[in-house]
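Look over this record as teaching material.
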Amino acid sequence: MNEEKDWRLNGQEDYLMNAQLIRKIYRGEGHEHCVFCWHKFMENADTVGDCSVEGYCTGDGEHWICEGCFKDFVGIFKWKLM
């Protein structure tokens, strides 16, 4: 993958480089988006369609990352799973 040309990279290194992440089920009202590709996370994802109920997030739950983006960027961002 050529990171310099990947449309999903938009300055996330400022807050996600070397971050500690948790694999977590989304629980909450509304929804969240992957900070890279905008994939949607919802508690009732199985009834909505192209959404996920589980992904990776920062300890404060502020930033979510989908499975695909996690696999693509874990080496670049040097994430650690808690």
About this structure: The radius of gyration is 12 Å. The mean pLDDT is 91. DSSP finds three helices and seven strands in the chain. Residues 3-81 form one domain.
